[in-house]
Amino acid sequence: MSTQLAIPARLARLPADRAFVVVSRVVGLLLIVVALSLLSPYFLTWGNFVNVLRQAALQFLLSAGLTLVILTAGIDLSVGAVLGLSACISAALISEGYLAIGVAAALVSGLACGLVNGVLVTLGRIPPFIATYGMLWIAFGLGYVFMRGEVIYGLPEGFRFIGAGFVWGIPVPVLVAAALLVVLHLMLHKTVLGRSIYAIGGNPDAARLSGMPVTRRLIMVYGLSGLLSGFAALVVIARINAADSGVGEDLLLPAIAAVCLGGTSLFGGVGGVAGTAVGALILALIVNGMNLLGVQTFWQNAVMGAIILISVLADQLGGARLVRPQ
Amino acid sequence: MPETQNPIVEMRGIAKRYGGVQALQHVDLDIYLGEIHALVGDNAAGKSTLIKILSGAVAKDEGSIGFEGRPVSIAQPRDAKHLGIETVYQDLALADNLDVPANVFLGREMTRSGLLGFILNNREMETRSRSLLSRLKINIPDIRQRVRSMSGGQRQSIAIARCVCFNARVVILDEPTAALGVEETRKVYALVREMRDQGLAVLLISHNLNHVFENCDRITVLKTGRLVGSRRVEETSQDEILRMIVSGVAEERSARPRPADRASAGAGAA
User: In this complex, do B96 and A326 lie within 8 Å of one another by their Cβ atoms?
Assistant: First the structure.
């Protein structure tokens, strides 16, 4: 009872533009679910439900770190490529039997790429778009060099559990994503690092002049984004039981889409990982719905782009209009 | 009174050059506790450069800074803060997307103790912000709102108040009322006087001599990077300060006292 009352109370506390984002996403999610339930007899099956959840979870794992970077008014275009590189290195090691080293290699390679991004953006004063764009090509290139066009296939059963296993009928990636969501949400709202992320995104000059160690915190955030890409790589290769140099190729744009759909502002300072989780879910539902309805792939891309633009436009026109400084 | 105590800040022979431009040359400045000290002068007089040197945002080329009688080095904003010198920058002070407690404690968030030192103590920050605002008589109905939704005067008050929270001895204000309306300006100056009355030293830049004469205790005039002179408000007049700003020359007051100055000084203080 108290929680039922608490939710509207918290919503009422939100500024009108944020309340607009929250309400529009929840209503959008419900509309999609209702529409697909009516349009497709397969939509409301347990198997399809699990499928959508797992897809959303994998999407969230990659978009979560990106969300942190975008909250600082930056961008990390290298998330997909870094995932690919980490996937190749760790798959090579794990398939040779070096499980622990392979897992560590994925995390370390991801973290290293992220830290380099952070140093380039802060100490190197390169705009995040350019720094991480360069890293995108470096990580892709290194992935190709490392794999020489080969495909690694067949990973140990024990390792595959984190991508393909089930606990109590729920896919393990979903549980992993849920745990990550809780940890990152608490980090953003309850820790000094989280407060810095919002402050830097809101006003980097104020953050710097207040004595906040902005450079160090930004390097940490980009490092965290790389680390989470490496972590996502482990779950992805465990799920598909393979890796090649192209594994991260088509992951960047959906990752940005999930963040946008989740209501995090690309201008920084506003949003959060809970929104990105909802964004990932909406994205997975739309893709799933179009597949169930037999929409052609070309149309799927166009529809996806339109939905992203409409959601951001709605936030701009509908939400921002509700809040004006007096 | 202020004349008998030693200055808390003594800046001596401060010089700063930007490329071919001599922004400041051999400027002296004394700041006293319990005083509002106004820095006035035309554009390019060097007012902003001088306060930035004191706040650590700009490095001086020459000169020395004394604090409580000992020489100190202020190389970055952090050094100034450690001494208790706090600066409120024009438009740069607040993170719009955060609420009042988050802004008051920006850069020095309160945390749990020990191993949980990375976890914010939001409740404590909220409590302290509330008592800080009431101590300074600042009225903000809902401090959990983002500061973006607040008025210019409220935002400026928050920016100024957060200095007081951290045992500041000297508060530097760069045109604190430049963007504010009449009523808001009045409130912000009431806050500044409140801080003075609580024993802080305030150094502020203003272009409005009426505000300066209504609220400040001491005035220093700069012109093209040079010190023209310093006057206590009750010993000068708006006319004299204006002549100093324009001519860049201080008048020999003890040698040739001007009755007219005395008369209008009395009017200015009233």
Answer: no
How many domains are there within chain B? 1
User: Is A207 in Cβ contact with B122 (below 8 Å)?
Assistant: no
Q: Write out pLDDT tens, residues A268-307.
A: 899 999 999 999 999 999 999 998 988 888 888 888 888 8
Nearest CA in chain A to B79: A211
Three-point CA angle A197, A202, A207, nearest 5°? 70
- Chain A segment 268-307 residues within 8 A of B by beta carbon are 269-270
pLDDT digits (tens, 9 = 90+) for B51-97: 999 998 888 999 999 999 899 999 888 889 889 998 887 666 789 89
Q: Closest chain B residue to A270 measured between Cα atoms? A: B97
Chain A contact set for B109 (CB, 8 A): 192, 195
Which one of B97, B149, B172 would you mutate to disrupt binding with A, by most A Cβ within 10 Å of its Cβ?
B97
Residues B14, B53 contacting (CB under 8 angstroms)? yes
CB contact under 8 A, A326 and B108: no
CATH number, domain at B177? Answer: 3.40.50.300
- In a domain? residue B267: no
CB < 8 Å to B102, chain A? 195, 198-199
pTM for this predicted structure: 0.84
Given a contact cutoff of 8 angstroms between Cβ atoms, the answer to whether A234 and A164 are in contact is no
Asked if B94 lies within 8 A of A190 by C-beta distance, the reply is no
The answer to whether residue B101 sits within a structural domain is: no
What SS3 class is residue A244? strand
* Owning domain of residue B37: 18-93+152-247
Phi, psi of A77 (to 5 degrees): -80, -5
Continuous segment of H or E residues that includes residue B67: strand B62-67
Tokens of A139: 């990580």
Q: Is B121 left (phi over 0), alpha (psi -120 to 50) or beta?
A: beta
B231 lies in a domain?
Answer: yes
Place of tokens 């946008």: A260
Could you state, in order of their start, the residue ranges of all structural domains in chain A? 46-249
What's the Rg (C-alpha) of chain B? 19
Beta bridge partners, B232, equal B218
Alpha carbon distance B90, A259 (integer Å): 33
Q: How far apart are CA B132 and CA B161, in angstroms?
A: 7
Distance in angstroms (rounded) separating the CA atoms of residues B140 and B143: 6
Interchain CB contacts (distance < 8 Å): A and B = 81
Beta bridge partners of A152: A243
* ipTM entry: 0.82
The residues, any chain, with a CB within 8 Å of residue A309's CB and separated by 6 or more, are: none
**Residue B60, domain member (yes or no):** yes
Write the burial class of residue A248 (CB in 10 Å: 0-12 exposed, 13-18 middle, 19+ buried): buried
